[in-house]
Amino acid sequence: MIQLPLSKLSNVGTTIFSQMTQLANENQAINLSQGFPDFMPDSELLNYVDDFIKKGFNQYAPLGGMIGLKEEIARKIENSHQAIYHPDAEITVTAGGTQAIFTAIAAFIKRDDEVIIFEPAYDCYEPTVELFGGIVKRFEMKAPHYEIDWNAVKGLISEKTKMIILNNPNNPSGKILTENDIRELIKIVKDTSILILSDEVYENIVFDGKQHLSICRYPELKERSLLVASFGKLFHVTGWKIGYCAAPKALTDEFRKVHQFNVFCVNTPIQLALAEYMKNDDHYNQLSSFFQKKRDFLRQGLASTSFELLDCEGTYFQALKYDKVSDKNDFDFASELTVTHKVASVPFSSFYKNKVNENVIRLCFAKKEETLEKAIENLTKI
Ligand SMILES: Cc1ncc(COP(=O)(O)O)c(C=O)c1O
Prior bond to 248 cis, omega within 30? Predict the structure, then answer.
């Protein structure tokens, strides 16, 4: 038997999302753990896909993506943020947000480069940085407000800092960056060559009339940023794994050097369908109000319980603080909730390297009203 080489990711196991989904399935629990809708996408979009497949658009797309889709993406960004990206030279269609993040890190991070992330953090940032020999420096945002202390972030910067990864709106906390956060960030990166990888997959899910402050609105940041988005989140099609990266040409050129050997190109008929569907801005402009109704339904349903509902400014996740309900740690509590009360969630500690436990769990409300209703019924009985 051969001796296996040392694992490049010795600390990495199955993601918490898969673990909780499996536990939910084994226990016939309502699955509010993984971030995906349990309802159908718009039939208009499905019909476009069907049409393009049947019309014979089934072969490789160009490396950077179909031009019609890239033009629609550029138009969307310009209309939403008054920022201009050249569709052909500065936008790359990717196999979801995850591949865009992986490719961006692979393209720029070398051994011993330092990368700053903000925790609670989406799970793919850290292992990807480590895979390329980079070193992760973390700032831990804490419950209940998950604010960023920019002085502390400044303390993490060294001459080795190559990249800052942002996630705005933030999964799992539901926080969005404020104008002040952005001003502080601009001050920190001024006169440095630090790149920004801005994961904005929930860009169109922001509540209560607040505005999503994309990195591309600020020329001082845009010039050094790779902006990542996901059609999975935008159009309720997480299983299609399609998204994009928008970045200035010099950054896009490097990004594509990796992209071409990573996936080369992405699903042709789906790109064509998305391009057609995106011609109507309503398809994404109504997303915030669509999800705000779901957020409010869940929050109202849980208002009379002993759970503390933390602020939810964006994304489709609601954070619940449960110290008045149980003194178990969040992993044990989430497991108990799944097995005994038949509602699956994700413990917040899994979004921190140091497993910070503040008795907070995450519920996904991208679900049909009847699913949320059943979950509320079970949670109110506790
Ligand atoms: C913050 C964040 N970034 C990236 C992704 C990945 O997006 P995609 O499913 O398009 O790969 C997700 C998916 O849940 C996410 O929550």
Answer: no
Burial of 151 (0-12, 13-18, 19+ CB in 10 A): exposed
For a mutational test of ligand 1's pocket, the pick from 33, 171, 242, i.e. the residue with the most ligand atoms closer than 8 A to its C-beta, is 171
Per-residue pLDDT 10s for the chain (382 aa) are 888 888 989 888 888 888 898 999 999 999 999 999 999 999 999 999 999 999 999 999 999 999 999 999 999 999 999 999 999 999 999 999 999 999 999 999 999 999 999 999 999 999 999 999 999 999 999 999 999 999 999 999 999 999 999 999 999 999 999 999 999 999 999 999 999 999 999 999 999 999 999 999 999 999 999 999 999 999 999 999 999 999 999 999 999 999 999 999 999 999 999 999 999 999 999 999 999 999 999 999 999 999 999 999 999 999 999 999 999 999 999 999 999 999 999 999 999 999 999 999 999 999 999 999 999 999 999 9
Q: Ligand 1 pocket, 94 CB below 6 A?
A: no
Q: Ligand 1 within 6 A of 103 CB?
A: no
Does residue 346 share a domain with residue 220?
no
In a domain, 7, yes or no: no
- What is the spatial distance between Cα 149 and Cα 129, in angstroms, rounded to a whole number? 23
Cis ω on the peptide bond leading into residue 5 (within 30° of 0)? Answer: no
Beta strands in the chain (DSSP E): 30-31, 91-94, 114-119, 135-140, 161-167, 195-199, 225-230, 243-246, 308-309, 317-321, 343-344, 346-347, 360-364
Tell which residue, 62, 57, 61, 84, has the closest CA to residue 73.
84
Q: Which amino acid is at 53?
A: I
Residue 81 lies in a domain: yes
Claim to verify: residue 172 and residue 47 sit in the same structural domain: yes
CA angle 83, 126, 240 (to 5 degrees): 60
- Of 265, 280, 295, which residue constitutes the final position of a domain? 280
Q: How far is the CA of 190 from the centre of ligand 1 (A)?
A: 29
Round to whole Å and give the CA distance between 110 and 113: 6
